[in-house]
Amino acid sequence: LKVLVLHGPNLNLLGTRQPEIYGSETLADVNRALERRAEAAGAVLTHRQSNHEGELIDAIQAARSDGTAAIIINPAAYTHTSVAILDALNAFDGTVIEVHLSNVHKREAFRQHSYVSLRADGVIAGLGSQGYYAALQAVVAEHGSA
Ligand code: DQA
């Protein structure tokens, strides 16, 4: 089972960026925990963070033909703006899980619409980093480790 985890803009600042909203764990902490869990489940996990919309799109396009079975994506602010990321995900045939650290539904109105949700098979918000681990667990349960 090959899984791609994509982190969108500003998530490289995790741990120091508005910790009251996003927590004090760093992105490296989250990625390490994901890798550990993937390994234990027999899955191969790669992760990528980018502040650039086009780089996220390139990574989604690459996942169409490299055996990736599932994408776990926190598109961050692009969630609410990017038709291009939605289009790229629509061209990917595998499972897509959308993750948000914060509960976007109890925040500003502009965070309550997601383009990505039009494609996502599942959406997790408000569970902090646990949301990524739950997403990985769901993907492993759906696909098995092979
Ligand atoms: C976020 C929520 C978005 O609205 C915001 O722009 C982010 C992070 C989250 O994980 O809670 O950068 O996706």
Task: Give the gist of this structure.
Belongs to the type-II 3-dehydroquinase family. The chain is an alpha/beta fold.
Question: Can you characterise this structure?
Answer:
- The protein has helices at about 20, 25-40, 55-60, 85-90, 130-145, and strands spanning about 1-5, 45-50, 70-75, 95-100, 120-125.
- The protein is of the alpha/beta class.
- The chain has one domain: Rossmann fold, CATH 3.40.50.
- Helix 3 runs parallel beside helix 4.
- The longest helix is centred in the first third of the chain and has 14 residues, at about 25-40.
- The chain is globular and about 40 Å long.
- The N and C termini lie close together (about 5 Å).
- The site of 1,3,4-trihydroxy-5-OXO-cyclohexanecarboxylic acid has 10 residues, from loops.
- 1,3,4-trihydroxy-5-OXO-cyclohexanecarboxylic acid binds near residues 101 and 111.
- Low-confidence stretches are none
Rg, Cα atoms, Å: 14 Å
Question: Can you write the helix and strand succession as a string?
Answer: EHHEHEHEEH
Structural classification = alpha/beta
Name the CATH homologous superfamily.
Dehydroquinase, class II
How does the major sheet shape up? 5 strands, parallel
Number of domains: 1
Mean pLDDT: 97
- Based on Cα principal axes, name the global outline: globular
Order of strands side by side in the largest beta sheet?
A: 2-1-3-4-5
User: Looking at the chains present, what oligomeric state does this protein adopt?
Assistant: single chain
State the distance separating the first and last CA atoms: 5 Å
Strand content: 15-25%
